Amino acid sequence: MAGRPVDPQRRAELLDAMVEYTIEHGFSELSWRPAAAALGVSPTTLVHHFGTREQMLEAVLGRLRERIFAAVGPRDGDHPDLAAAARAVWTRTSDPRQWAEFRLFFAVYGRALQAPHQFERFLDRVVTDWMNALCEAQGPGVDADLARRRATLIIATLRGLLLDLLATGDRDRVDDAAQAFLATLE
Prior knowledge:
It comes from Nocardia aurantia. Residues 8-68 form the HTH tetR-type domain. This is HTH tetR-type domain-containing protein. The protein is an all-alpha fold. It contains 10 helices and no strands. The chain has one domain (8-183): Tetracycline Repressor, domain 2, CATH 1.10.357.
């Protein structure tokens, strides 16, 4: 006897709620019972919609990555040049309203580096999304190797600055450094 099918809309709603719960409570504390209680559903409901705990974690990571990239990626119809794209990434990621998501992002990133086999999909995409957008922002006439090198430097620099900002809260100092770096791209 087959179980009832998963309602994709309900799963998406639960997934968004799980991401919010994870942002608030942390990645390492994510487990069925507390999450279900916070979401007002049973643990069985979460199992029905997500399968195993690992599948739930993978779904949460995927949605978090989608949300972060949507917040910092190019907008529909928007094709900024490299400097404008990098500046938009910094502006959106350094916004204090995004800090909770990026704290979770860095926590997940650290855990993924410790257990790459468990977080293979996350690690495959964590750089690729931004890399592709920043390479595309350089235009079709730019050598692919040069485009990747520039994109890599931008990603590493902005992530490092963001990590510094989240760790210290020293917005003036870190933003000054970010603006100096971004000016080199113009």
